Amino acid sequence: MQIYPDLAPDDPILSLFQKGVKGQWAADEFDWTLPTKFDASEATSFARVLTPVYLGEQTAMLGASTVLAHFAAAKETSAQLYITTFMLDEARHFEMLTRVYKLLDRRPLELRELREMFRYHHRLLKSKHRLDWLFGILISDLFAKNFYGMFRKLFPDTLFGKLSVRIIGDEARHQAFAEHYIGRQVDEMPYETRDRLLEMRDDLLVIMHQMLASLSNDAYNVGFDGYALMQELEEDIRRKIHALGLEPEARAEALETLEGEEAVWRNEMGITEG
Ligand SMILES: [Fe+2]
Ligand SMILES: [Fe+2]
């Protein structure tokens, strides 16, 4: 670490830290009397589909605590500062979702009930480099953005719809950070590193699809098309990778499998459009 770092005022990551500090809010500022508009069966399904996101909030918080020390060791002080607000954001999301479970009187799935969650988080946490870790977080944050964004769009007047709006604001800062941090390294990035990141993207997408396949009935019961969500997510990731300048390499084999699974699911559910 540096005793007296040069925290340049024009460093965009430093300004994201300042935004992160100003953007803090507490769970008790939120109106918890808003209606959930779930019946008993929908509440059970919602508790299930929320589980990967819920676990994701906690994994992000824990991962941030690890990467903080790596930023310090690399003398990346603005990133070191920024990540503290990230950690507090994820802690708040975790706290709020815990409160949602209590309110619904439901429990999240256990890891053994959805093994893909374990695989997903293992894939994220096995990263040794802070760059890989941030890339994984970028993918996870894009997933969170699409998940919360869908509730904001489909159920704007419900408790979870309103909560989603608050959380999305935080997630936007997280994405901006990952983009800045990865973006400033892209020009110098060895092909081997790019390949490693794109391989991680493919792995995470495949696991997300498997997770979704296990939860598709619950998603349907809550009132959304999980595969439409995945399509939007894939498009988001594709755009982001393109914008970052990482190779838009085809992942034909993985996608073919995923599209096949989607076709089966849509057929089973009788969904023909889109
Ligand atoms: Fe979060
Ligand atoms: Fe996040």
Q: What would your notes on this structure say?
A:
The chain has nine helices and no strands. The protein has 274 residues and is mostly helical. Residues 249-254 have low confidence and may be disordered. The structure holds fe (ii) ion (FE2) (2 copies). Residues 60, 90, 141, 144, 171, 174 line the site of one fe (ii) ion.
Concise overview:
By secondary structure, the protein is an all-alpha fold. It is 74% helix and 0% strand. The protein has one domain (12-24, 31-269): Ferritin (Up-down Bundle).
Task: Describe the structure using short key phrases.
274 residues; RNR-like; 74% helix; Ferritin-like domain-containing protein; Ferritin; Ferritin-like_SF; single chain; oxidoreductase activity; 0% strand
What's the pLDDT, averaged over the residues? 90
Structure ligands: fe (ii) ion
Q: Portion of residues in helices?
A: over 70%
Largest sheet, in brief, is:
none
> Based on DSSP secondary structure assignment, what is the total number of beta strands?
0
Distance between the termini: 52 Å
From the helix content, strand content and strand pairing, which structural class follows?
Answer: mainly alpha
The number of domains: 1
Q: Examine the coordinates and then state which fold CATH places here, giving the name of the CATH topology.
A: Ferritin
- Name the beta content range: under 5%
Looking at CATH, the homologous superfamily is Ferritin, core subunit, four-helix bundle
Radius of gyration from the CA trace? 19 Å
Ranges with pLDDT <50 over ≥5 residues? 249-254
Topology pattern, helix = H, strand = E: HHHHHHHHH
Label the CATH architecture: Up-down Bundle
Total helical segments = 9
| The top level CATH class name | Mainly Alpha
The shape is globular
InterPro entries: Ferritin-like_SF (IPR009078), RNR-like (IPR012348)
GO molecular function: oxidoreductase activity
Organism: Ferroacidibacillus organovorans
Protein name: Ferritin-like domain-containing protein
